[in-house]
Amino acid sequence: MRLSRRAVCLLLAVALLLVVGGILPVIGANKITIKFFSNLPDRTAGQGRLEQLLIDNYMKANPHVQIEVEALQDEPYKQKFRVYTAGNQLPDIFMVWGQPAFFDPIMKGGYAAELNWDDYKDYGFFDGALDGFSMNGKLYGLARNTDLMVLYYNERLFKEHGVKVPTTYDELIEAIRAFRKAGIAPIAHNGRDCWALNILYQDLVTKVSGDPTLMYQALAGKVKFAENKHFLAAAEELKKLIDLGAFQDSFIAADYGAARNLFGQELAAMYYMGSWETGLANDENFSASFRNNVSVTAFPGMTGTGKGKSTDLMGWFGGGYAVSAKSPVKAEAIKLLNYIMAPENWAKNAWQLGLVIPGQRYDQFLTGKENRLQLQLSEIINKATSFSGTPWNDAATPGFKVDSETIIQEFAAGMRSPQDFLRACDQAAQKARQ
Amino acid sequence: MGDNMHYFRENKKTIFLLVAPGFAFFLMAVLFPIGLSVYYALTDWSGIGGFNYIGFRNFQRVLQDRIFWHSLKNAATLALMTITIQHPIAFLFAVLIDRLGGKLEKVFKTIFFIPCVIPVMVTSKMWVNIYNSQYGLLNKVLELIGLGFLKQQWLGDPKIVLYSLVLIMMWQGFGWAVLIYYAGVKSLPEEVFEAAKIDGANRCQTLFRITIPLMQPVIAVNVIWAVISSLKQMETIYLTTNGGPGNASQFLANYLYIKAFDAYEFAYGNAISVFFVVVCLLTTVVLNRLLTRKEYY
């Protein structure tokens, strides 16, 4: 049988294709791609920079691993996360909030891979840091940071207007009056996001009652919001703050960035926000005057009427990471997670770069070069007499989160009376329990 | 040739083949998703994990949901204000631009259309800043011209937030309204106007007796379009207030999104979306009937 030249060429080409097609996957088999989904879109500064640095280091040490990062701001992140979950296509490793409203459905739905408790014996996580990341004794994620709600303030503005930095609740009211009189927004607040209002209300409940567990008793149905005098007193206190003009005008419409900028541009004297804003002292977007004058104190406790002290803190372990249970590279993704969260990586660098307060012990990483906010925050933590745990809006179902945040915004906007607000809280909590 | 055409029209197979691609697309892009929505609305699916069939409970809940009705009322307010405020002004400007002629006609046409080509994201954020109580342009200008007493918390006050948003949305859609009316005015036959001129009709008479009646079909299209886009409104709301304070400025599309994706009540979100489709369809049918009937007068 004689084959024409064209047929020979064709046969050869097919053979070549088969050989190359067979070899290439074998060569590529050693190369692993891990998809990393993050809520830190700024990869050149802050926590995003640290995350990227650790990822780059890991890729250098493990040349066969390729890590693809997708990063979005918190709100878009949550939305895309839900789309990924609905489509059952979660990336291999992803950021999670270790709070029931966010992480419980993920753990229950079997979307997060189980981790081995023993792997983290020496990681130095604080007591309770992994509570929000575990369910029925099984571990599904690791906490990144310790979150505290504190009162940042601008020392220059306090000095220039002769106002005393508040150490008691009465002094806080005095400071609010003084700054209002001077035409300066006393406290910058992001009311559009609602959650900060929820946290402030819980803070007030603790400060009024002296009992950090009261809120959770109400969520569990053991105490009624509407029938407890402490809840009413705290609601009236919040209303008083709003009526006094404690927050900037139209704070209800201000989002996170708007409130943060107001404080950073020295147009507000105080800023009620979490310890994750330690980086304010190094933020080049704001003036040197601001950076040199930003300080932090605990939200003051009450004297007289209230029983809560300034050392009863709103504190919890919020953000962290988990691995997808359906990841084709699950083992490699867990290895990467363990590398990132190793104390000498996340905890050490996060502390020494002055970014956040880690969720792991960091006393061995103190250098003596910490910025002022870090030292002040450390002192606040060291003096703490109680920590709240997960803020109430995040402590139940996703539906309760939406309800409780809507209700408190309506209350803050004057659409509900304190009693009406408390009745609505009871209804929402009951709905969440069903 | 005539026989061929006849055969072609009569052949049902051919008709089916010609219609099939379009119908298949309609089936895939419209009917199938709606069907799927109805299916999910009959369950208690949270969006993740398993689910159970629960009958019409979600639909009953929608009917009793005060935020659903409030959102619908907000859409009706927006539609009403668009039709009674934005449209007459847009119509007037369309007629005026047409009369300008020459280069100026093009210049003004472009100016009015600028807000429509800027992404909604940008214009919404711009308005959030204009409305800002601390440094916003609006309050500053009011103070500057001695109207300081009119200063408001434009997006923070539940009593006025809807109207502040309506203004943004009317501004954003103004160019479209002008453009459609302008196209309508341009297509009117010159002879009728010349005849009216010869008969001694003045400008006002020409406008009310000739221009507006002749523009009836264009007005109908523009009104239906305004109502439907009011019902569908989502982007501006999401980017400015997210329906707040509370649900004071809530709209249906944004509300169903919050229910489906924030509250993990995916099935309930689907029930709202089914009602949403029904409301949009009914409105279109009713408006079509009302507005086309007028054409015969």
TrEMBL record, chain A:
Domain of life: Bacteria
Pfam family, one: SBP_bac_8
Keywords: Transport
Family note: Belongs to the bacterial solute-binding protein 1 family.
Name by which UniProt lists this protein: Extracellular solute-binding protein
Upper taxonomic lineage: Bacteria, Bacillati, Bacillota, Capillibacterium
